[in-house]
Specification:
Distance between the termini: 28 Å
InterPro entries: AB_hydrolase_fold, PLipase/COase/thioEstase
Number of strands: 4
Largest sheet: 2 strands, parallel
Keywords: Membrane, Transmembrane, Transmembrane helix
Radius of gyration: 14 Å
Protein name: Acyl-protein thioesterase-like protein
Organism: Arabidopsis thaliana
GO molecular function, one term: hydrolase activity
Strand content: 15-25%
C-alpha cells in the first residue's frame, strides 16, 4: 500500500537503510528551535513513531550544520513506539 511518510522508507527490515539526509534535516530544524531557549531552561525532546526516532537520533548524534555547530544536550529523552535510526 502506498502511504505518506516524513522520510523515504526503502524497506522495513532489520537491515534497512536509514534516510540520513532527512534525519539530519529534521534534526537541524529541531536544534534551531531549541537553540533559542534561554540557557536556564531544561531541554527535553520526545515523540511517537518517527518523533521518537528523531529524538533518539538527535540525542545520540547531536546536530551539525555546515556553517555552525548547534549543540543541543537534552536532559530528558522520551520515545514511544519508535526505533534508533543509524544504529550501526
Amino acid at each position: 500500500m502506498e502511504t505518506n511518510a516524513w522520510f523515504d522508507i526503502a524497506e522495513l527490515s532489520e537491515n534497512m537503510q536509514d534516510d540520513v539526509a532527512s534525519l539530519n534535516h529534521a534534526a537541524l530544524s529541531i536544534a534551531n528551535l531549541l537553540s533559542e531557549e534561554p540557557t536556564n531552561v531544561m531541554i527535553g525532546i520526545g515523540g511517537i513513531g518517527f518523533g521518537a526516532a528523531q529524538a533518539l537520533y538527535l540525542a545520540s548524534k547531536g546536530c551539525y550544520d555546515t556553517n555552525q555547530r548547534l549543540q543541543i544536550k537534552p536532559r530528558v529523552v522520551i520515545g514511544l513506539n519508535g526505533w534508533l535510526p543509524v544504529w550501526r
